[in-house]
Fold these 2 entries.
Entry 1:
Amino acid sequence: MSILPLVEYPNPLLHEKSKPVTRINDDLRKTLDDMLETMYADRGVGLAAPQVGLLKRMIVIDAEQEDDENGKHIQGKPMFLINPEIIASSEETIVFCEGCLSVPGQKADVVRHQKVTVRYQDKEGKQKTIEAEDYLAVILQHEIDHLDGILYIDHLSRLKRSMLLKKLQKSREKEA
Ligand code: NI
């Protein structure tokens, strides 16, 4: 496995719509493994293909990973979702403080559906359905948004978004 370079805001790729995956083969599975490793390297809980520069409808998620007392990373429950699609969502909403590996170092509250049902294909191309709520539902909505060129900051008010982007710029200036 290898770590892939991350695409960061304001790269225009992040605002493009990804294309459906039509062929699930070993190359694609290797890319998914690389995406998982890339996500783990930055302790992300989800990563979408456009974030590594691929406009393909696929995401990886692990909502249960942790670090042990020595800081060693322990894999939780990695999930690979190809062509994921939200087919049902609750009226009830939930507010969660979200971050994104493509908008490094920033966080903000976003309103999401509390429950979603997602249809997808697994690594073998098998059709599956998952019902998720709370944290996992939030991650699924955040990652599937990426496939439609939507970032979590696009859900914020104009004022909140511009404040967040100013902070991002300042933190980058410090790094430079
Ligand atoms: Ni993200």
Entry 2:
Amino acid sequence: MIELAAVELRLVRLPLVAPFRTSFGEEREKEAILLRVETRDRGTGWGESATFPFPRYSEEWNEGAWIVLRDHLIPSLLAGGPLAPAPEDVGPRLAWARGHRMAKAAVEMAVLDAALSAQGVPLAEHLGADRDRVPCGVSVGIPGSVDDLLARVGAYLDAGYRRAKLKIEPGWDVEPVRAVREAFPDAHLSVDANAAYRLEDAAIFEALDGLGLSMIEQPLHHEDLWDHARLQARLATPVCLDESIRSAADAALAIELGACRVINVKAGRVGGLLEAVRVRDVAVEAGVLVWCGGMLETGIGRAANLALAALPGFTMPGDTSASDRYFADDLTEPFVLAPDGTMAVPRGPGIGVEPRPDRLEACTVRTERITA
Ligand code: SMG
Ligand code: MG
């Protein structure tokens, strides 16, 4: 049982080491909402929202998440009395609010961190992880030129990354991907369109189909499972869904329709780590592969991603890259890639990391504390 006393919201900004461009826009810095829950007698816990400053990846964005957290989710969390068992109680208590999954996931992460820290249990162990290191991939943004892309992919593969995911968009697809395949014939490669195409563009995917990709991620509109099923039927390469899957129920429907053979699991997108585990359950049961995605998280969210990536069923390398792929100076102690392309899953209780106080202060744009 946990009794919550207050929640502090904190908007942070960290410059990215290089701009990250996708089909829907460019990020030059990571702006995130951190959440710190304070309990009456069980210490504190940290969570991070997967939202970005603009509602481009999904409907959610930082300012919207801040308001729904401050005015709705946190007040109803605090008003409901003690949580027991704490993490499992969060989802049902916030279920009255429709959507806002990334905001809800941040609350759940913070409560999980507090509850498990108090018990001395690492998050990975609590979720059922069966390994202490995970193989890591890297997501490569849309660069200025094919030469630039080849240099970036080469550097990441040299660093040990086990899979390179190339962002694509109309006008930047078959030619650059073919160039990467020719330069790195044996590399584990995938592509991610972030919903930038329509079924009428199927010829582009048929051209990509011959390039030995391990998957084509979210090629079509995020609300169009049926067209994804029709596209998958035309391709040998597995379709992977990201934006389209917001719950375990979505996963079951997509699989039933034949809309994907792989699912990118992000706790934020599906409303929390516990629902992410249920997405894994549905997928594995159906023989659909899963891996852990990323949202350019700071070390706080990254720690939780690594715990998720360590669960049985997460067989493919995730977008769980090292801190230095994003930031010159992360909020936490940096996550470091080993030369074999793996990273250690945090071993400490809860999420296993905390922000470094000086770095946290330096990155903070504003804070607001909500009390019971
Ligand atoms: O965390 O390394 C990361 C980013 C991985 O490509 C990534 N995420 O569609 O999978 C995706 C994107 C969403 C964020 S784009 C700003
Ligand atoms: Mg994606």
